[in-house]
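Hello forum,

I keep getting stuck at the same step: I have a sequence, I want structure tokens, and every attempt I make locally crashes halfway through. Rather than fight my setup again tonight, could one of you with a working pipeline run this one for me? It's a single chain of 378 residues.
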Amino acid sequence: MNVFLEKCLKGPFFKIFLMSLALSFAGIPFFLKDTFGSEDVRHTKHNLAVNPDILAGEGNDFVPGGLTSLRGARNPEVRGIEGDIRLNEEVCIFCHTPHGGRSTVGGVQGIAPLWNRRISSPMAYTPYNSPHFDAQDMMGVPGRPKGVSLACLSCHDGAVAFDALINSSGSGGFFPQNKTFDGPGGSIGMGFSGPAVDAANSFREGRRANADASGNGGFVFFDRFGSGPNASFGAEPFPNLGLDLRDDHPISMEIPRTDPQFSEILTNITTKGGRIPGSGGVMWIDRDPGGANLPLDKRDRIRAYPSDPSRPDAPYIECASCHNPHEASRPGGQPVLSEPVNAETINNSLFLRLASRPNPDSQDRNSRSLICLSCHKK
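Reply #2:
Ran it on my machine without issues. Output:
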């Protein structure tokens, strides 16, 4: 038996087994990186407590023996001695809640999971339009924000307050009016000390809209590589899109079925990822019929959404088709989970998904316009 075992251990089959085992373990870090590396919301600008242009904190209306506007965030008789929102804490609450959130946003079931925010009315927006293209879907309805886009705009339209929450931190902080009613406002009285926040606790207008030639009266939004007014750093992206969306990429519009440049993705969209027709699941966008260029991590994939509940297979372009709000990569490298969370480690994430075209650059996700070319055949 010993002789037989010795021959097995020295034989070619055992060597093949060892090589296979080594390759298997070698692949684990790459698999984990692809699956878990791209999402770390604490290191993104969506960590509103750390984002230096927002700097979310608690309210200051403590009343002994009573409930504050935050229903206990500063009230030790309700919450104990846990204290304020701090760095790394209460990051998710500005969008999501484990209890009592909106189950439908813009009429679409589950499209914005456990949504914790007031939203604007879809009719408040002016959609994109042009002589060459219109923002109507295939049913002839104007492309006003639906579903997940309406959720994104509940911060980014500059009308709804950052703290227009349905369920706040602490026990007992439920604000049903922010779940029931739509429209501007909704603040529950939190404090914001960042220069991007106006008196109504929503986004200030950027310099593109209301500044004079010297830049006075406007606001340059956060980016570590520049400097701007109001103690902000700046490179002027557009986090405040406003209610007029005519100068922004169209959203909540069905991918045109009669335009030849979209024929490839429309052909492939029903065959990717094992999606079951009629399921109401998201649809992966890829011009390659073989699927070779789809990112392995589903969260990285450019996608279309079933934004019309009556037509679950109709593919709609939405804000989250190209943007992942939890994605933390930035030029120069992905932050590691253990990296301190501060103004220097959260910057520069554009929340872009990864292009479904050959040879994407994970650090510059729209390098060579590959995200654009994933949909548009130019």
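The longest strand covers residues 56-57. If your local run keeps crashing, start a new thread with the error log.
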